[in-house]
Amino acid sequence: MLEKEKINRINELSRKKKAEGLTADEKIEQDILRKEYLKSFRSHVKGTILNTTILDPKGNDITPSKVKEMRKKRK
C-alpha cells in the first residue's frame, strides 16, 4: 500500500481544495498522488482476486476461467 505520508498528503490536499482551492502546483501534485494511490489499490485488489478460489456449496471449484488463466500467466 501507499506510504502513510502520501495518504496524509492526499487527504490534506483534498481538504484544502474544498476549503480554499489549490494552486496549479498542488493540483499537479494531487493528480500524481491519486494516480499512484489508484495503481497501488488496483494492484492489491488484483492480488487478492488471483489468490481467491471460489467454491460452490458442494466444494467444487467454480473460479472463473479468466482468473485461472491469469494465475497461470503469473507463474
UniProtKB/TrEMBL annotation:
Gene3D superfamilies: Helix hairpin bin
One cellular-component annotation, GO: cytoplasm
Subcellular location: Cytoplasm
Any single Pfam family the record assigns to this protein: DUF896
InterPro entries: DUF896
Alphabetical UniProt keywords: Cytoplasm
Key word Cytoplasm present: yes
Similarity-based family: Belongs to the UPF0291 family.
Name the record gives this protein: UPF0291 protein HB844_00975
Species of origin: Listeria fleischmannii
